[in-house]
Amino acid sequence: MIENIKKIGVALKILTNKRATVEYPENKEILPDNYRGMLRLDIDTCISCGACARICPNSTITMVDRDTDRGIKKYPEVNLERCFFCGLCEEVCPPKCLVLTKSYTEVVSFDRREFIKEPEELN
Amino acid sequence: MIIDRKDLIDTISSFKKKGFSYLVKILGIDYIDYISVLYILRNLDSDEEIEIEVHLNQNDLWVPTIINIFKGADWYERELYEMFGIEIKGRKVRKLLLEKFSENIYPLRKSFKWGTK
Amino acid sequence: MLINELIEIIEYFIVMLITAFAFAYFFGWLERKFVGKFQRRHGPTYLGKFGLLQNLADFFKLLTKEQVWPKKADKLLFLVSVFLIAGFTLYLVMLLPIYNFYIINSSIILLLIFIILSFLPILIALNGYSSSNKFAMISAQRSILLLISFEIPLFLVLIAIGYYVHSYSIVSIVNAQSNLWFLFIMPIGFFVFLMALLAEMERTPFDLREADSELIAGWLTDTGAPYYMLALFVDYIRSFFGAAIISLLFLGGWYGPFGNSFIWLFIKTIFVALFIMFIRAIAIRMRIDRILYFGWIVLLALSIINLYLVYLGY
Amino acid sequence: MSLVKINIGPVHPSTHGLLRLVVTLDGDTIVNVEPHVGFLHRGVEKLAENRMYMQIPPFIEKCDYVAKTAMDEAYVATVEAAMGIEPNERAQYERVILLELQRIASHLLWLGAMLNDLGHFFSVFMWTFADRDKVLKLLEEATGQRMFYVNMRLGGLRQEFPKDFEYHVLDVLAYLEKRINEYESFIENSSLFKERMYKVGVLSRDDAINLGVSGPVLRASGVNFDVRKDKPYYVYKKLNFKPIVLYNGDNFSRYKVRILEIKESIRLIREAFKQMPDGNATGMPIKLINPAPKNKVVRVSREGPRGEIMFYLVADEQRPYRLAMRTPAFINLAALNHIAKGNKFANLFPIIGSLDLVMADVDK
Known about the structure:
By secondary structure, chain A is an alpha+beta fold. Chain A has helices at residues 2-15, 51-55, 88-92; strands at 39-41, 61-68, 71-79, 98-100, 116-117. Chain A has one domain: Alpha-Beta Plaits (2-Layer Sandwich). Chain A is built from 3 helices and 5 strands, in the order H-E-H-E-E-H-E-E. Chain D has a single domain (4-363), classed as Orthogonal Bundle (Cytochrome-c3 Hydrogenase, chain B). In chain D, a hairpin with a 4-residue loop joins strand 7 (308-315) and strand 8 (320-326).
């Protein structure tokens, strides 16, 4: 029985620890600066080479053609339902225009079509 | 080392007597014209490892069971049977993952095509 | 003459009902907050000031859910046993005296309470049996096992108290504790009584009936949402009753340092409830065969020793 | 007594993930436990035959979502062996640090889930999760993602450690060391715990070898085998790593091996930070065309938190021809039937807890 009393002693000491949980909507955790969150595309520097579309393991990036002043060019369009933010596309992009930002803006919506982000929306 | 499947059981038990008492893995590889089954054993004291390979041609795929030498081989053999369709002679083997509605579907064979992108 | 007695009973009935419901409600809330603090998390904070309305929200949520009857379930037996359990528990609460405010003060009130209390596990077993779910079956067997192994030590301790006070009426027992609490007179008896009541109230380490890591929800596995809410509420009321009985019999009910009033009884009950929650946050569930060993050998021996000590005029 | 067959379904409070057990009971003692698996089967081995080398790590990591770095590092080491690339000194040290941090996080999660199976009403579960969160923050700081890091590159890491990463790690380790002693005294000082853990689910030494279990389950039965010592890789020899072996093979020794392994990992990380040379640990960035592999057949085995992870790679030009994986939980679960036979029904869940199963590991 003695060990049980020692156990209660330790338990009382543990009772004094401060809470570890954070009330999410009000205050949020601080993220490190190299956090891989939402994608951001810088349209003008994109040379539409399609490297990101080919490297993506889940093939979530498809090249969609947009007509710009210099004729029709292909730009990446991301399907966020399938993307798991592995960051391979960010590394393989030659002009480094596709970047994963720190904002994990809650990618939530009631409509599945909203998950497919057009190239213009990726900013 | 490559051996024939007839003397598989006594080579494995001879190796077990020599001290290779730990079965690491049984795996199958589909080389289109034959399927090779590998038994990897390890000697826990001297840390050596030995690979015993058996070649099976595509039409009669069966392998004798080593369940009574290594109890650990049970799930490996069931996985082998499910993934490659290799019959395990000497024991009743049931599929591990999908028992129903998966007759003669053997995913790890090269002949098994799926929606390749 | 009969009418004002009747009015007095109804008045008492309402007061006790309100205290029982209020206590059960706050017991549920306090348990979530206290165990939450113990586990370094917040507990409910979203509804109401400190999450006070959380239980209310659960109450209505469970009420709105649909009641699904399993095919093989025995509907009549289930309904009878659920409402009997609820009825008996509330009836037990009615028998408790508070200071000078009680319905019956007969000399055998304590025996009546514990006879009814020992009848509840049988009803719970029936309830589990009627839902014909495998887990509920095992839970019903365990409920009977718990009943058998914890009743005898419980009653031996009661006999010790009764012998000491020469009567079983709770009021006279509490009056006998005016100078020295029974906790100090018979500490062994207090330990045995506490363990037996923990098993009665299905609290860890003896919550075998509702062992969630093994039997999913024990005898409540197949109950529909409204009846689950009723069973949960009854569970909290039984915890209130257990805490009240312990503070009445062993901690000198309404006797306190300054004036003795019913506030002391509530403070002690809340303190005992906190202690029960603390045990729930710490202890691990005992295995069924260890509980039988604990009940039959350890508790039985202790209660006999306790009885012997009291008999010797300790 | 008639045998009762109980179906502990895929969704059960105490199975770790999606595992269906069909238990045949004779009264309260277990006659036979038959696990039904396959709920998390994603066919990673077939998937790998269709992806380029550096596209596969995200899938390999999902095969063991608790020890992600271990699987990721083991796979990338196999590809490096196939291509004849050797990570430089600093990269080896940094990989060992990340591996040991991941082992601590995995053991902490196991500790909480194990106590939860004993009926502990989530107390220790919440504490260990809060502490594991601290370790995950460290890994997040080093790799940029909280759960699936995809952090290993050929010949090194994705990026160098941030500036004062070392100081963050050292004070988290100091905090963890204090907490582990607190947990140990809290958990072991209870007769209830000893009752349910001693001599329960005993696995003898030659049964363990015959069944082919690995990792803490094997070392708790007295077999002195740890890939980090027997086939040392990276800098474990320099950190003079000694495996933890206990001998009576019951639930308690499986628990104790993991607790001591956490302490050993803490010591290893501190030692690694002391000996780490300067330099740059970033490996080769991702490219669409990887260097051609030199030797065809490669076999690499590593020590994950649950046991020995082994990759068997038959290399093709740009895609693996065949990638076979030996995941430890697969065989530990296969041994469950042998261990649990004859025990009480209430003992089944502590035994499952002590085997530290992760279902994605089993189903691959």
